């Protein structure tokens, strides 16, 4: 029913499956977080959406202070499954759906898009940290830009960096990433581990 969420969840699920045992401590575009922390954060966010809708569950740690250790192998899939199941109970067109966002309830389409934005951008974070191709397609980015424009202002102080000026030749994915304070040309995994 919610194709944008299915695409974003698929991107996150597939890129996390590619993380090697020796890659969890690699740096990511999230300046202070390694791959493990980004994955833990992304999983916690999806659990937060599920809990906001269902009233049960939720992340077991603060998604904005994720621990550095490797997450349990099944945790990402479980979080994505919980979010997808929660959103499956929401009818399109529902005017107010609870969300974990500080901007309060939003329309069904907006909350679904917000959860998809979170998953898709963090899938990109992990992919580029591993030196893999981006799973954030221009087509998916075009679908996510409207909710990014709604969310970025209120969340800019703690969830997103300052917007970065675009460059000639930017596609929709690059425009979205820059809008959220990320550099589309972020260096790959050769940066090493945090603290090294």
Secondary-structure blueprint of this entry?
Layout: H1 3-17, H2 35-54, H3 75-87, H4 108-130, H5 138-155, H6 172-179
Structural class: mainly alpha
CATH class of the domain at 3-135: Mainly Alpha
CATH architectural arrangement of the domain at 3-135:
Up-down Bundle
Got a strand count?
Answer: 0
Distance between the termini: 45 Å
| Helix content class | 40-55%
Our estimate of the beta-strand percent is under 5%
Major sheet size, sense and barrel closure: none
Are there runs of 5+ residues with pLDDT below 50, and where?
none
Question: What is the CATH topology classification name of the domain at 3-135?
Answer: Four Helix Bundle (Hemerythrin (Met), subunit A)
Summary tags:
196 residues; globular; mainly alpha; CHP03086
Give your account of this protein's structure.
This protein has about 200 residues and is mainly α. The chain has a domain at about 5-135: Four Helix Bundle (Hemerythrin (Met), subunit A), CATH 1.20.120.450. Helix content is about 50%, strand content about 0%. The protein is built from six helices and no strands. The protein has helices at about 5-15, 35-55, 75-85, 110-130, 140-155, 170-180. α1 runs antiparallel to α3 (about 75-85). It is globular and about 40 Å long. One of its GO terms (molecular function) is metal ion binding. InterPro entries: CHP03086 (IPR017520), DinB/YfiT-like (IPR034660), Maleyloyr_isom (IPR017517), MDMPI_metal-binding (IPR024344). It comes from Cryptosporangium phraense.
């Amino acid at each position: 029913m919610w194709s944008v969420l299915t695409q974003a969840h698929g991107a996150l699920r597939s890129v996390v499956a590619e993380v090697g045992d020796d890659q969890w401590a690699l740096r990511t575009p999230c300046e202070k977080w390694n791959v493990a922390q980004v994955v833990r954060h992304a999983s916690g966010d999806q659990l937060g959406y599920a809990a906001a809708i269902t009233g049960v569950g939720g992340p077991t740690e603060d998604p904005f202070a994720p621990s550095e250790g490797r997450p349990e192998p099944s945790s990402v899939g479980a979080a994505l499954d919980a979010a997808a199941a929660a959103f499956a109970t929401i009818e399109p067109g529902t005017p107010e759906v609870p969300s974990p966002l500080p901007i309060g309830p939003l329309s069904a389409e907006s909350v679904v898009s917000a959860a998809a934005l979170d998953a898709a951008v963090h899938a990109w974070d992990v992919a580029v940290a591993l030196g893999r191709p981006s799973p954030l397609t221009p087509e998916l980015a075009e679908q996510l830009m409207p909710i990014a424009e709604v969310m970025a202002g209120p969340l800019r102080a703690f969830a997103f960096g300052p917007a970065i000026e675009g460059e000639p030749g930017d596609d929709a994915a690059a425009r979205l990433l820059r809008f959220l304070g990320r550099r589309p040309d972020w260096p790959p995994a050769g940066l090493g581990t945090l603290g090294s």
